[in-house]
Structure formats: structure tokens, C-alpha cells
Amino acid sequence: MAAPVLRWGCRGRRWALACVDGGSCYRRGPPTGSTCDRIRGQSSVAQQPLHTAQKPRKGEHKWAAVVGLEIHAQISSNSKLFSGSQVRFSAPPNSLVSFFDASLPGTLPVLNRRCVEAAVMTGLALNCHINKKSLFDRKHYFYADLPAGYQITQQRLPIAVNGSLTYGISAGKERGQVIPKTVRVKQIQLEQDSGKSLHDDLRSQTLIDLNRAGVGLLEVVLEPDLSCGEEAATAVRELQLILQALGTSQANMAEGQLRVDANISVHHPGQPLGVRTEVKNLNSIRFLAKAIDYEIQRQISELENGGEILNETRSFHEKLGCTVSMRDKEAKQDYRFMPEPNLPPLLLYDATSLPTGADPQQVINIDQIRETLPELPSVTRERLVQQYGMLPEHSFTLLNEVGLLEFFQNVIKETRAEPKKVTSWVLNIFLGYLKQENLAVSESPVTPSVLAELLDLLDSRTISSSAAKQVFEELWKREGKTPGQIVSEKQLELMQDRGALEQFCYSVMKDHPQVVMDVKKGNSRAINKLIGLVRKATLNRADPAMIKEILEKQLST
Amino acid sequence: MWARALWLGLRAPLGGPRGFTSKTDLQGSGRITAEVIEHLERLALVDFGSREAVARLEKAIAFADRLRALDTDGVEPMESVLEDRCLYLRSDNVVEGNCADELLQNSHRVVEEYFVAPPGNTPLPKLDEQEPFPHS
């Protein structure tokens, strides 16, 4: 797999700044290509680099960045991985802690069936090979929020291996074109979460809350197939959507249900991989992209200036937009992995190997789980494109915005209007209003039924397109009026009387013989002037398309 | 006292070096270097208080080394005596918790239902800063 290439003509902080722009960086800057293309210099728009002042150095160096991700997703379950205490985001400190979670002597781990099912579902959704036998191990390190002094994980033989995650990068050049990319999934393993530490620097102490200790986690390890912040952010977003569609994790980064650590290194293509750094404390998808791009540029700058990269852990500083070394960490941790002596191997079955007469509660059938998998985002998007004739880019937007797909489908259910009309209204106008006021779909003043009603009026040609937009603006004001009410109040109904309209057209033409002359002479723009005049005369209550048709008919006679 | 605790700990079977990477691989040599002692002390938070303790450690390792005399080529290592037992799967129901008061009684210091710990990990003194081994 050829690693993408970063062009670095000469050191230029200006160049670095242009690329560090996180978030929707492929919208700003050059109009074509994604961030990665820009960095690669493969954009088809011939652009002069920002650093034209200096001559390009001899033997222009190309850099390639390599990004590997370790993603921890909290399993959505009622109780914890090895104990029966509750899993809940907020609760009084230490109230969701069992004796096992507090690591009291004499307690033993008991595996939660739901967590195993969640791991199998996720493994299947990511095209992994599910290991019919997997093992649990202890990973030892000392920290106050890990009362046992070790974490139970699956280091030797995890539950799923060798999968793939496909995501789509928007190619800004042609609207609606989405390039599919794949990152390999190295493995998925079950492990325990640790408790939470609250650092009280004032009193030089740490407060420990073990509510989170023992909650089940899925660790998804991705191979270093990613090459920039945008790819990483998109891949993580896709994983989020998959986990949410499966119901295996709510994957909310803000609530700590999805945590991502990035391993980043740079090298010259063809040469061995460089020293990597680990970046932690990434609390949102946007910061993930920003931190990765910053770190790539930092490493390139460092190496270009003759420095070297230390194999260290760095933290992302949100306000400053940079990564900072966490140098107080020990050089290399020795986790002293050992088999978890209290847990036998985890055995999974399929339809052919299922033991007869087994208690169904005690066996897990991979085939049965595969059959009951919910629809994955990629399949949903494909279905939307086929069913409603929308562009792939639209399907991505519909799934990316929380609640938007459901909204869209409810409108479709209740309106007679064409799906393409609905798509356009939901993605352009509705979404536009939401974004302007930074609202979630759930906070929208316009419900699907109301929008459906409006689109029906438009579809039946009761109102014009511009009138519909006016009505929408009124609806957004939360005054509780229906579209029908607004239309009659503001007298926005289109004229239905064709005869009256013909009369208007005739009189406008009579009053403006010069314009009529222009049209007859072949000036195509002149007819728009006539249409405008008729619209004014009819107080905007005539359908422009109909006006044009009548005018053309009258002009030809 | 620490040395005795370590001796008892070492009588349990050592984790197989085959399954995991091990920093303290002492093939052949019976001597344990100061670096290894420091490393072990940091990893396991034990205190080798005396030279006698280190000597005891070396003897324990030599004792366990006799396992290498066995020819185990082609034999799958046994990871657990439970390897042919059934792993019990529990239903996903909430049956425990809600005992903060009881748990907090175990803690030396408590602040508003939180356990109190020192800030971060207290770093161990470096080897050269330590007192030389006292005679036992």
C-alpha cells in the first residue's frame, strides 16, 4: 500500500499553519482535493506554494506520515464487565462500585454475557475473524484509580482480529463524489476500564471515584494505514456511527464513551518508519484531526531542523492547539502480562459447532449474532442512494448529523413531494437553519409533519418556491402556526386563474413595448425583465414558470 | 519482613517467559544486577531491604530454573488449571453496588465520598540516592 506523500519544499511556518486548520479543512483553502491532497501537493489546481520567496532546496524532501489509532469504546450494557454493579455516566461517587470493583480480597471476576455479544457484533461489523477461543490476561501497573494493581485485558489472544474499517473521504472537486478508503483493524479486545482521578493540586491529593472501574471496554486497534488528521477523524466518525448503529456503544466522545490515542511518526518514503510519539487527551473528533496534523508538522519541522523525535507520550493542549510532552511518564512500562488465573478460556460457537443440549444462556452462537446484526451505516447510505436517487455525499451528511436521518425519513413518510425535493429541503434549507443557530435536530422548531405539510403545498403548486421559503422562515419563529395558516395570513397562494394571469401578461407587454422588441430581437435576458414585471404586478403570487410559459406563447403570436 | 514476603511470593509459579516478553530474563547467569533490583522494586513495589534478600531471590530463581531441564518441544503450554472448565456467562443485570459507606470505611482518608490518594505516583528514590544495604 503506497504511503501518501507530504511535499515540503522548504521550511515555512506559513505552510504549516495552512494545514493545521482542523475540522472542515477541506472546505477552506484550495477548492479542490482534501487536506491530504493539499499536503501531498497533488492538487490538480496548479498552485504556487506559499513560500515562493525562497528557492526550493536541493533534493526536495518528501515526507510521509504514518498514523495508528487505539480506540477505547465503552460498552453499552446495564452492568460491568466482570461484576454486577451498574454502568451509568453520572452518579454519586463510589455508589456504583461492588466489592470486586473495589478489589477487596476474596472477590472473583464473572464475565458479562452482553459484553461478549457486543464484542462479537462489533467484530463482525468490522469484517474481523472471530476467535472461537480467546483468553484473558492481567496487565499490571500501579495507579490509584486501578485498585487491583492490574487491568484484566486480552493481550495474547483477543476476541477478534484482522478486520477492516471503510470510510469515505469527500473529494471536493466533483460534488457528491466520495472516495472510499480502508484502514485495517488489527484486533478487538475486551478489557476493564479504570476509575476516575480528580487531581486536587491545592491540597496535593487525588480524589478517586471507582464508579467507572470495571466498566467493559472494547479496544479497537487500527493498523497504521492512516496518513493525516482528516483520514483519522473520518475513520473514527465512521466507527462511531457503526457502534451506534449496532448499539454496542453510545460512543459519545464528550462523555468519555469513546477515547482515542494516536501513534504518529514521519519518514521519507522508501526508508524505515520513524520514531513514533503517542498523543493522548483527544476529546473530540475535531481535536483529533487538529492534534494529528499539528504533531505531523511538528515532527517534520524538528527533523528538518536537524533535531530528533523522542519516543514519548504527548498530550494535546486544546487552547494552544499543540501537543505537549508528558515527560513525567516513565520511560518504558513493563506491564508483566500474565494469564488471568481466575478465568478459563472464552469459547464461542457457530451453527456447526454448537454443543447439543447446551444451556442457551451459557453459549454464544456467532452465526446467530451475525444474522441479527442491525443495518450498518454503509448499507444505509447505499440504500438511500438507490431508493431516493440522492448523491453519495448527501447520504453521508444525512447520517453524520444526529437525528437527521430519522427526520428525513419521517418527512418522506408524510409528504407527497418527490424524494429529491425532500432531500434538497432537508439538507440545504432545514440543515442550514439548524447550523445558523447551532441547534441539534431534536431542538428544531419545525417538526417533520410541519415540513411535510409545507412541501405538500409546494408540490400541489399552491405556493411558489420562494413563497415556501418565506413560510419556512415564519415557521422557524415558533409561533405555533401551521403552514396553511401562514400562507393565508400572508396571502402567498399562487394565482390559480390562468385567464387573469394572461391578462396581466398582456398588459405588461403592452406597457413595455421596448422590452418586447428586445425579446423579439433575440435578447434572451429581456424576457426575465418581463417576468419580473409580471411578478411585481401580481404581487408575487404567480408561478414564475407559468408566467414565462404564457409570455412566450403571447410573444410568439 | 519485606524479603520474607518476597520469598513467599516467589514460591508461586513464575509466569512463563515464553508467552510474554520479559525484561528480567536471567538465562544462565545467577547474578542479579542492581539495575534489575531497581526495576523489580519499581514494578512490584517490593523492597529488597538487604543483601540476604537478593541472595534469596537468586536461589529462588535457580530453583525454578530446573524446569528448563524438561524437554517441552511441541508441548502446548498450559496457561491455567481451569483450561477445560466452562467460563460462566452472567446475565446483564444490576445486582451489586450502592455500598459506598461500607467501602469508604476501608480508606485511611476520605473526602466527601471520594477515596483520597497521593497526587500521581510517588516516585521511588533513585538507586544512587538509596541507603547502602544495612547488615541484617
UniProtKB/TrEMBL annotation, chain A:
Protein task: Allows the formation of correctly charged Gln-tRNA(Gln) through the transamidation of misacylated Glu-tRNA(Gln) in the mitochondria. The reaction takes place in the presence of glutamine and ATP through an activated gamma-phospho-Glu-tRNA(Gln).
Subunit structure: Subunit of the heterotrimeric GatCAB amidotransferase (AdT) complex, composed of A (QRSL1), B (GATB) and C (GATC) subunits.
HAMAP family: GatB
Protein's UniProt name: Glutamyl-tRNA(Gln) amidotransferase subunit B, mitochondrial
Molecular function via GO: asparaginyl-tRNA synthase (glutamine-hydrolyzing) activity; ATP binding; glutaminyl-tRNA synthase (glutamine-hydrolyzing) activity
InterPro entries cross-referenced by the UniProt entry: Asn/Gln-tRNA_amidoTrfase_suB/E, Asn/Gln-tRNA_Trfase_suB/E_cat, Asn/Gln_amidotransferase, Asn/Gln_tRNA_amidoTrase-B-like, GatB, GatB_Yqey_C_2, Gln-tRNA_amidoTrfase_suB_CS, Gln_synth/guanido_kin_cat_dom
Top-level taxon in the UniProt lineage: Eukaryota
Entry annotated with the keyword RNA-binding: no
One Gene Ontology term, aspect cellular component: mitochondrion
Compartment(s) where it occurs, according to its Swiss-Prot or TrEMBL record: Mitochondrion
Record keywords: ATP-binding, Ligase, Mitochondrion, Nucleotide-binding, Protein biosynthesis, Transit peptide
Coiled coil: none
The protein's enzyme class: ligase
Family named by the database record: Belongs to the GatB/GatE family. GatB subfamily.
Asn/Gln amidotransferase domain boundaries: 406-555
Catalyzed reaction equations: L-aspartyl-tRNA(Asn) + L-glutamine + ATP + H2O = L-asparaginyl-tRNA(Asn) + L-glutamate + ADP + phosphate + 2 H(+); L-glutamyl-tRNA(Gln) + L-glutamine + ATP + H2O = L-glutaminyl-tRNA(Gln) + L-glutamate + ADP + phosphate + H(+)
Entries under PROSITE patterns matching the protein: GATB (PS01234)
Listed GO biological process terms: glutaminyl-tRNAGln biosynthesis via transamidation; mitochondrial translation
EC numbers for this chain: 6.3.5.-
Organism: Saimiri boliviensis boliviensis (Bolivian squirrel monkey)
TrEMBL record, chain B:
Protein name: Glutamyl-tRNA(Gln) amidotransferase subunit C, mitochondrial
HAMAP family in alphabetical order: GatC
Any one Gene Ontology molecular-function term assigned to this protein's record: glutaminyl-tRNA synthase (glutamine-hydrolyzing) activity
Organism the protein comes from: Saimiri boliviensis boliviensis (Bolivian squirrel monkey)
NCBIfam families, sorted: gatC
Enzyme Commission number(s) from the entry: 6.3.5.-
Gene Ontology annotations for the cellular component aspect, listed alphabetically: glutamyl-tRNA(Gln) amidotransferase complex; mitochondrion
Protein family: Belongs to the GatC family.
Reactions accelerated catalytically: L-glutamyl-tRNA(Gln) + L-glutamine + ATP + H2O = L-glutaminyl-tRNA(Gln) + L-glutamate + ADP + phosphate + H(+)
Keywords (A to Z) from UniProt: ATP-binding, Ligase, Mitochondrion, Nucleotide-binding, Protein biosynthesis
Major location category of this protein: mitochondrion
Cited InterPro entries: Asp/Glu-ADT_sf_sub_c, GatC
Enzyme class: ligase
Subunit structure comment from the entry: Subunit of the heterotrimeric GatCAB amidotransferase (AdT) complex, composed of A (QRSL1), B (GATB) and C (GATC) subunits.
Any one of the GO BP annotations: glutaminyl-tRNAGln biosynthesis via transamidation
Subcellular location: Mitochondrion
The protein's role, per its UniProt record: Allows the formation of correctly charged Gln-tRNA(Gln) through the transamidation of misacylated Glu-tRNA(Gln) in the mitochondria. The reaction takes place in the presence of glutamine and ATP through an activated gamma-phospho-Glu-tRNA(Gln).
